[in-house]
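One such given next:
>
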Amino acid sequence: MAGGQVDFYLLGGGEPRDRLRTACRLAEKAYEQGLAVTLRAASPGEAVELDELLWTFSDRSFVPHAVWPLDAELAAESPVLVTGGELPPSHRDVLVNLAADLPDAVPGYGRILEIVAADEESKSLARARWRRYREAGLDPKSHTL
């Protein structure tokens, strides 16, 4: 697994939607830099939540996005794709991973952003992903929010 940069964002609060809001902010930042982004939700239901939140999380901006899977031509027109399952073959600049596991396609991404909730289960699952990245020769960094 060769690849790019891996960053873990550790949340301090216990609000359940903090993970999703943080994912939206990170996707917005990457979009503003002209990067193609995949937001990988933990489930199809969470993907629906992310889709809705991307419309409303900020009063000052809009993040153009679509939910994957969809027509390849429409996907190409959307800088941000949200998925609760299969990863798209495009949008490989940035992966924002909200799922508990590591996707198989990790080597194809320039940057991977992991968002870790404050509860112990989320931290434990994040430690396992951290180890897998290290075993793959990557050097993850952590950031406390």
Notes: The chain has one domain: 5-144.
